[in-house]
Amino acid sequence: MKSKEKDNIIFIRLFKDEELNKNIKEVCKKHNIKTAVVLSGIGQFKSVKLGFFKEKGDYRPQELKNPLELLSLSGNICSDEEGHLLHLHAVMGDEEKRAIGGHLIDGTISVTAEIVLLKTDIDVKREDDEETGLKSLFLE
Predict the structure, then answer these.
(1) Which CATH number does the domain housing residue 67 bear?
(2) Total domains in the fold of the chain
(3) For residue range 26-48, what is the model confidence (pLDDT) as tens digits?
(4) Measured at the alpha carbon of residue 67, what is the angle toward residues 90 and 37, in degrees to the nearest 5?
(5) pTM of the prediction?
(6) What is the DSSP letter of 28?
């Protein structure tokens, strides 16, 4: 993984066999990120785990083990006492140009990934929401 920052914009390059979430969290530590917005993400996964929120306690995870092109990555990052919480969604395409997407639980890079973050100092938190069962964004 490589990263570079200027004026609160961080470019990240991930390489073959690197785990997306682990490396984004390392970048967050390296660049002292409090909160960030994912501006873009492109590349290719060799495997990916997606979720779909059905209802409280049912997130419908699914692991896909075929190469998928990362067409779009969006989301946000918050810090807490234990590190960084990533809330990411992704759209991917297969070899037949069909799209699939959802909540990105994690993924392993096949060839490369290029991600751009906007670093902010906005104070936000994620807390358990009793009604939904999700760690929801709370703005103070």
Answers:
(1) 3.30.1330.80
(2) 1
(3) 999 999 999 999 999 999 999 99
(4) 20
(5) 0.91
(6) H
